[in-house]
UniProtKB/TrEMBL annotation:
It comes from Verminephrobacter aporrectodeae subsp. tuberculatae. InterPro entries: DUF3261. Residues 1-20 form the signal peptide. Pfam families: DUF3261. Keywords: Signal. This is DUF3261 domain-containing protein.
Amino acid sequence: MRLIRLARLCGMLAAMAALAGCAPLSPSPPLPAMPAMPLLRLAPSSLGREWAVVQQLDVQAGGQKRSFEVALEVDARSVRVACMQWGHTVARLDWDGRQLDQSLAPGWPDAVSAERVLSDLQLVWWPAAAVRAALAPGWLLTESAQTRELSYGGRTVASVRMLAPGHIELRQHAQGYTVQVHTRGDAAPVFSTP
């Protein structure tokens, strides 16, 4: 008799478990909306040194590829960038820590803003501590010997990888473009060592 009752009880528990499995689950909370990608506006002096370098940038976005030569100069007072294509200066920007001035040649793509160029430069080259200090709550910058990642809510938004000495790749996952940076001459230290 006990065996029959036990079998019935087990049968009822199994039926209840099966019904519970069919019950609709309460909806899981939606993922937090990702705020706009931060635009870094770090002080020129926060690079920690004076620096002048020429870089070749290969930008790939929307199935198209464009190459630029970029002259970058940084001192304690300003960041100066000149973008050249086919021997002609197509864009200049000057950041003094308060104001960003830009000069763009006709035909410069509207989607490429001086603010984004400055922010990408600082994400790649400025010390991680300076970048972290400028990030809003929820944003995280992680760094290793060969990589740097900017994330929000556990999702990687931008990544920087050192592929070889003088060759760095910046991927803006959220913005949908990749930049290959080839540096000639003196490259600033990029990543910390673990």
